[in-house]
Amino acid sequence: MRRISSFAFSVALAAASLSAQPLEAGKKQYEVRCVGCHGSDGAGGGHGPSILDIRRPRATSKEALRELIRKGIPDAGMPASPMSDAEADAIVAYLDLLKAPAIEHPVAGDAAAGERFFAGKGNCASCHMVRGRGGILGPDLSNLARERKLGQIEQALLDPGAAPAATPGSRGGGAAPSFKAVSVRLRDGRTLRGLAKYESPFDLGLQGVDGKFHSISKTRVAELTREKSLMPKVEALPEQMRNLLAYLSRLSHDRTARATLTGSAEMGEGTKFSDIARPKPGEWPTYHGHLSGNRHSPLNQIHAGNVAQLAPKWTFPISGAPRPLQVTPVVVDGMMYVTSVNEAWALDARTGRQIWHYSRPRTPGTIGDAGSGINRGVAVLGDRVFMVTDHAHVIALHRLTGQLLWEAEMADYRQHYGSTSAPLVVNDLVIAGVSGGDEGIRGFLDAYKASTGERLWRFWTIPAPGEPGSETWGGTALRHGCGATWLTGTYDPEAKLLYWPTGNPCPDYNGDERKGDNLYTNSVLALEPDTGKLRWHFQFTPHDLHDWDSAETPMLVDTVFRGRPRKLLLHGDRNGFFYVLDRLTGEFLLAEPFVKNLTWASGIGSDGRPKLLPEHEPTPQGARTCPAVAGATNWPSTAFNPATGLFYLMAEESCNIYTKNPQVWEQGKSFYGGGTRRVPGFSGGKYLRALDVQTGKIAWEIPDVGGGILASGLMTTAGGLVFYGDSNGGAFIAADAKTGRLLWNFNTGQAWKAGPMSYAIDGKQYVGMTAGSTIMVFGLP
């Protein structure tokens, strides 16, 4: 039976808001009448269950509990126990103390002295983290006082490794995750020691004391020894123990608070930026796989000759996902990181088993894409994993544990800001954009210090009155001009230039109060990453009236173009044109339509500006224009294969009738200034198209691609393949990159909203994809 020392409860009684005398009396009554079945700490004894689990309480009020104690539960083996009202009330009060999280009855003592002992002589901080600082071998204690009861805290200090008394569903949150200490001797003679993050009859995931994660097949294990704990018993004088409990019983973190959490100035070991700029063989360290934005994998183990043998290796379903997930997995050091809205998972990339899970509640009151639950993934650097939240925060988690290291607020979500896409790491910076591009925000791009979360610069995509570019806004719309930065950009380490795409101006369909080009909307920005200074920009659709965000990947490619080597930026825009730019200068080189239904412009001039055709501005009655509002293409990933010289994208032949109205911006509402509707009788088509970079012409196409431009992204490989998802039947498909010939498919029965990726573990290539709300990984036999 677990026993809690009288010291713990003497300090608890002294600190309790109720008078100590009834609680002491209740304790005595409990020990006489209840301890034999329920244990001295209420967590269950030899004959009775735990009374700490309040998920399915037999009594929901103090009065009902008093009667239950008196009458018992005969059919469950609990006898009646007649007693006076005073005796019953004393037991009820004492049970409330047993059930309460420590924060409700903190220990009286010097919490500041306890914190010093925790970080110093007690050596607790070497294993445990509090508010982003400390070790990672033990659980994060930032919210300990809400997650644990006082008796449980002291038990862990005096008897590490004892079965915890915490029960899921207790007040203040669920129980902390279990940490099982093991020592493993491998057949090759090596010995590893650490915490088992997961274990099955076949595999073991070990967080080693060496600071690394080890994915171990049980066939490699010669001997596995289970240890009680890696944590030693705390040696402390009574006053030191009281002060330590005073500190621990007050540890609480309010995740809903707007205050930021600052990280440590020192980053731990892990992924270096050089490993991101030049990925290690088999890794997929960024959202696009490469800083260039080109989803081309150099792996060639899977190729046209054997792709027919491709089969599922593992799946990981994500329950409660608000819609088909849009995340692209990131893989470094054998660990895969995936997200949903306000949630992140670390998985063993070899087996698909969960290593850790981070979660926080969705934010009430968010609107737009962030409010709908979109999140596209993470960035990694050092010992950190970075992601954004629905309410426009950037957070850093520890890559091995998921512990929160820092948090920074980008903007007030109440002003319609959110964030949805994977950040981008450049050197020691974390760069993230914001959503809200149909809700009247003022768009910006932020850079944060990766170690601490300190904001280092901000680039506003909508200039303030009087700033350069404000002259391109004639009217009153500038204040809510949008220009969101919601899609992940790209980076050229040699040129030291950051490229970021921007979204549409607001109101979307009515330009009466924003006459002019409306900089820097519908553009690609070339920024100096250290300062955020604008080097050059190119605007694809000046004065956009059709909601044609340019939030499509600005892909960076080095190739021979028109007879000489060039550093190019390739971009398939929602407006229906494929662009080739010189990425060092922004020089316009080529633009060709990649759809046939394109009515708003006759072409792109030598100056890079569209040649507008009349009668395609929205009107109150409606004007028919092609492409439709979703565009000729959209945000899902594009790819370029250097072996074929082809650029691949999803394309859609579509048209809409666009209308406008005199809407003004209002809090809590979108800011479209009009709307769209289908064109009666129009039948377009959805295609995967391969474009010749030299001419912009269509080299080949695969028609009837289910889901089209708002579904699957693309990936090419050195094995001569193009991978994508087809929502017509939920098939995952591989095609020949040269010809478009279909080679393989696997029916998942899912919808597609993400892009494929590829990685290798122990020399074996895998292909990963998010199908619906399930992470799926394929490989060869």
Could you give a quick summary of the protein structure above?
This protein is mainly beta and 781 residues long. It is built from 11 helices and 45 strands.
Please tell me about this protein's structure:
The protein has 781 residues and is mainly beta. It has a five-stranded antiparallel β-sheet with strand order 6-5-4-3-7, with no helix packed on it. A hairpin with a 5-residue loop joins strand 16 and strand 17 (404-409).
Q: How many β-strand runs?
A: 45
Strand order of the largest sheet: 6-5-4-3-7
Radius of gyration: 30 Å
Biggest β-sheet strands, sense, barrel: 5 strands, antiparallel
Mean pLDDT: 90
Distance between the termini: 50 Å
How many helical stretches?
11
Low-confidence residue ranges: 1-6, 13-18, 164-176
- What coarse outline follows from CA principal-axis ratios? globular
Helix content: 10-25%
In quaternary terms, these chains amount to single chain
β-sheet strand percentage: 25-35%
User: Which structural class matches the secondary elements?
Assistant: mainly beta
Key structural traits:
single chain; 781 residues; mainly beta; 5-stranded antiparallel β-sheet; 5-stranded mixed β-sheet; 11 helices; 12% helix; globular
Describe the secondary-structure layout.
Elements: H1 6-15, H2 20-33, H3 35-38, H4 62-71, H5 85-99, H6 111-119, E1 129-130, E2 133-134, H7 144-147, H8 150-158, E3 180-186, E4 191-199, E5 203-208, E6 213-217, E7 221-227, H9 238-248, H10 273-277, E8 296-297, E9 311-317, E10 330-332, E11 335-340, E12 343-348, E13 354-359, H11 368-371, E14 379-381, E15 384-388, E16 393-398, E17 404-409, E18 424-426, E19 429-433, E20 444-449, E21 455-460, E22 490-492, E23 497-501, E24 523-527, E25 534-539, E26 555-561, E27 564-572, E28 577-582, E29 588-593, E30 601-604, E31 610-612, E32 623-625, E33 639-641, E34 646-653, E35 656-660, E36 674-678, E37 685-692, E38 698-703, E39 715-717, E40 721-726, E41 731-736, E42 742-747, E43 757-761, E44 764-771, E45 774-779
Parallel strand pairs: 8-39
Antiparallel strand pairs: 1-2, 3-4, 3-7, 4-5, 5-6, 9-45, 10-11, 11-12, 12-13, 14-15, 15-16, 16-17, 18-19, 19-20, 20-21, 22-23, 23-24, 24-25, 26-27, 27-28, 28-29, 30-31, 32-35, 33-34, 34-37, 35-36, 37-38, 39-40, 40-41, 41-42, 43-44, 44-45
Helix pairs in contact: 2-5, 4-5, 6-9
